Amino acid sequence: MLHLKYRPSKLSQVIGNAANVKSLSSLLEKGETHFFMLVGEGGTGKTTIARIIGKMLDIEIVEEINAANSNGVEFARDLSSRIHMKSFGKPKLYIIDECQRLTSEAQDILLKDVLEDTPPHAYVVFCTTDPQKIKKTVASRAAVYSLQKPTFQELVDYLSLIAGEEKMTVSRKSLSKIARTSGRVLRDSLIMLHQIRSLTEEEACSIIEGYDSEDEVELIELGRALSKNAEWTVVASILSKMKATPDSAIVFLRAYMSKVLLNSGKKNTAFNLLVAASGYQYGSGMPGLVKVCYEACLRNENRN
User: Of the candidates 146, 162, 188, which is a domain's last residue?
Assistant: First the structure.
């Protein structure tokens, strides 16, 4: 998958956020800062940059924690204990995603036990979409970076570069449509680009141009129904009203389910749709789309 192949592993590979990249590079070279906070909406690269921080600091032991799952007092106490524990002299990095979900009490514990005076062998990165929920006393201890999505032009230029690397023939108009459809999220743009890599320019344009922003609501509704293992009658009802072209719907569903597979607990249902979609033949129209969705529902039903 292109979004995995071209996921940045160095700050120099991050597109957009030039000022943040320059500042962070300078800070990491000094190696004196142990607590960072990365702020930005979904798709701005917070987790990716957090991992790059670990690489630049030559940290082998990295623990990623989703505060949406564990966020209370006991969690904070346990995390504080682990952070203070040395691991054979090797530095450790703790990436706390969705840190705004930490309770006020948990933030207080981490502040007192860890963040005010982080152990020299430990580094902590908070990632958040809602910095207003982080206590000022906590945020004031961190090196805070507010990340932005790449500009439309930056993303189109980057997609053009990747298309060239992959020897793909894709018009700039199609790349612009991908950038717009993805909401300027690099990961989602690369997923869409991957979906059309084996198609001709005419087929790719047909699929991409067949997707309109007005179709997004119904396509998301279909994706959610399939990922939540809805009854076939519910899925069939959505399909019967759908205006998006079947080819563009498949591109959207593949991107949607890939995202679900990477980021949520609905892994089986997402995987089943991706397996079903692998047999889809572009141009097979609504019968092909219905077959994919029905097969996904059957696979999900058989797993229960």
Answer: 146
Do the domain assignments include residue 201? yes
Number of H helices and number of E strands within the chain?
Answer: 15, 5
Assess contact for 125 and 155: CB atoms under 8 A: no
pTM assigned to the model? 0.70
Q: How far apart are alpha carbons 266 and 252 in whole angstroms?
A: 17
Residue 241 pLDDT class (50, 70, 90 cuts)? confident
Torsion of CA 137, 33, 129, 248, to 10 degrees: 180
When divided into structural domains, the chain yields a total of 3
Does any domain span residue 249?
yes
* pLDDT tens track for 89-121: 789 999 999 899 999 999 999 999 999 888 899
Indicate if 40 and 136 belong to the same structural domain: yes
Sorted by sequence, the CB contacts under 8 Å of residue 156 that are 6+ apart come out as 172, 175, 176, 179
How far is Cα 80 from Cα 57, in angstroms, rounded to an integer? 21
User: What average pLDDT does range 261-270 have in this prediction?
Assistant: 65
The per-residue pLDDT for range 127-149, each reduced to its tens digit, is 998 999 999 999 999 999 999 99
Structural domain boundaries enclosing 170: 151-209
284 three-class SS: coil
Rg over CA atoms, the chain: 22
User: Are 26 and 119 members of one domain?
Assistant: yes
